[in-house]
């Protein structure tokens, strides 16, 4: 049975370190079965179009699956001395594997984040926003309510001197 570990690495170098581990540590034998850089899909507005981009979900961390029987000091030393690796997550000298429930929860959460894109900007009540799309373009208002499951928000806008509530999609507003 394979064990999963969380590896702390230099932020911004996750993909490079993944390739280094695959090429150097797994050169003689496939001791590392799988390496995952946690990513999520993010929805953002660019030039009037809604675009989906990938973003690191846990910057500075990667998940590695080590083959059963491959857990020894030479493997830990090879991983720790890889350039950019800061160490294993957990206390003590030897790495602590994740439990089966922990890794199942993490992998299912990552799969959910891949399927449903999260908005690039999170809104909260009281935020001042400018409307960037729709019939009320260039109006400013205050966020009254946020509905993250529907990616919508209610904004109070002053129209002809009266406060009016508008319900907008996340990508129709921009935080000021």
Summarize the structure.
The chain has 176 residues and is of the alpha+beta class.
Describe the structure.
The chain is of the alpha+beta class. The protein has two domains: 3-118, NusG, N-terminal domain (Alpha-Beta Plaits, 2-Layer Sandwich), CATH 3.30.70.940; 128-175, SH3 type barrels (Roll). The protein has a five-stranded antiparallel β-sheet, with no helix packed on it. The chain has three helices and twelve strands. Helix content is 20%, strand content 40%.
The CATH topology of the largest domain is what? Alpha-Beta Plaits
Q: What profile does the largest beta sheet have?
A: 5 strands, antiparallel
DSSP strand content: 35-45%
Helix content: 10-25%
The CATH homologous superfamily of the largest domain corresponds to: NusG, N-terminal domain
Q: Terminal Cα separation, in Å? A: 51 Å
CA-atom Rg in angstroms:
22 Å
Class by SSE composition = alpha+beta
How large is the count of helical segments?
3
The order of strands across the largest sheet is 11-10-9-8-12
CATH architecture tag of the largest domain = 2-Layer Sandwich
General shape: elongated
Mean pLDDT: 86
Total domain units: 2
CATH top-level class of the largest domain? Alpha Beta
